[in-house]
Amino acid sequence: MVTLYRPGSSLWHLLATGRKALVLAALVLAISLLPQAWGRPTATIPAALCLACYAVPGIGLRVLLGQLVAMRWILIVTAVGQLIFLGPGPALVNTTRIAALISIAALLALTTRTTDLLDAMERGLSPLSRLRIDPQRVALLLAVTLNTVPALTRAAGQVREAQRARSARPSLRRFAVPFLILALKHADELGEALTARGVR
Amino acid sequence: MNGIVLEDASVRLGEVEALRDVSLTLDARTTAVLGDNGSGKSTLARLVGGLLPASSGTVEVLGLDPRRQAAELRRRVAIVFSNPDAQIVMPTVAEDVAFSLRGDRLRRAERAERVTAALERFGLSDLADRSSHDLSGGQKQLLALCGAFVRSPELVIADEPTAYLDARNARHVADHLLAEGAHRLLLVTHDLALARRCESAVYVAEGRVAAVGASAEVIAAYEESLRW
């Protein structure tokens, strides 16, 4: 699974999950609402906030650098698009803002175990149980969805390897059919495993 | 303690009758299930584990009716499959083990204590914070076992748990499954050396029980059937 969590004892790690989510959501919202008309501060304020969030002991700017590298394609596409249609000034401001937004939001996953996220989500969604929505199920759906990404990535790799082993030329149809079968088989097995582990 | 009792149990999967009129009483602590591919071994394991309903006949596991007392059965019976990848639900090793206890409404401290003890028992303590999907095949199967045993089940059903493992890891996993303890074991396997380590065995052929009894006798009957 794509686990972003980094064990540690920083301020962000120590903050309760619900409160942390609220603080980060408030920061993200504030950055999103910064008026474009302010010009350069619309870029410098998010950048400064982002640096401050990552500068706390136990996280560090190296982690921030890793996040920026991971989202480089999003940033490049954004910057190029803005550069073409809006010019260099807005391109710099908006790209900086997006980089800061994603990096700040990523702090939640970086400093919170999935189990704690699920617990917080269950608590947060508990009022929905009045509407007959089971918060446990919603949280489980999130966990299973996240878990399925690496499983399907591995399945895709297996199909490609099998095709190469048989010297088959790459084709979408030849890839899609066995991949779909593997995906359905995984879904079956996962369903059984969840039932076996007490999920009703 | 009641074991596993089947009376004229049949299982139909679509057009195929995967198990036919199976009557069995299994009281030994460890039982191996042998048979060719497609003979109905895994169907028998799934029937006992409550994953498949009987189309006719009766099934009783630890004194429970798997169909009517499914929740209670889930609490007392753990199942381990051959493909550990499909059994991993959470991103890190410790979290995946803890997932098995989510439904038990334990206090956080108690849950952590049980997870730590289980990880230690299966030699996974050093990997607690590692990504579950980055483990080797043997480590993943140990994680699957750990996730099953953390609930202290009375019965463990293992469907070819060593199928994807090398000899060293297979022995390691088998040692854990067969270790003396409070649990009973129903082990579906093609590995006759592993089956010999069980007290009793069932030989399934074409959906029927061909032999049942002490493992040495049943294995001899199965080996006899392999002669051309």
TrEMBL record, chain A:
Its main location: membrane. GO terms for cellular component: plasma membrane. It is a multi-pass membrane protein. The chain crosses the membrane at residues 21-38, 44-65, 72-92. Keywords: Membrane, Transmembrane, Transmembrane helix. CDD domains: EcfT (cd16914). InterPro entries: ABC/ECF_trnsptr_transmembrane. It is found in: Membrane. Pfam families: CbiQ (PF02361). This is Cobalt ABC transporter permease.
UniProtKB/TrEMBL annotation, chain B:
The keyword ATP-binding applies. The keyword Transport applies. Pfam families: ABC_tran. GO terms for cellular component: ATP-binding cassette (ABC) transporter complex. PROSITE patterns: ABC_TRANSPORTER_1, ABC_TRANSPORTER_2. Keywords: ATP-binding, Nucleotide-binding, Transport. InterPro entries: AAA+_ATPase, ABC_transporter-like_ATP-bd, ABC_transporter-like_CS, ABC_transpr_CbiO/EcfA_su, ECF_ABC_transporter_ATP-bd, P-loop_NTPase. Residues 4-228 form the ABC transporter domain. SMART domains: AAA (SM00382). GO terms for molecular function: ATP binding; ATP hydrolysis activity; ATPase-coupled transmembrane transporter activity. Gene3D superfamilies: P-loop containing nucleotide triphosphate hydrolases (3.40.50.300). Belongs to the ABC transporter superfamily. This is ABC transporter ATP-binding protein. It comes from Brachybacterium endophyticum.
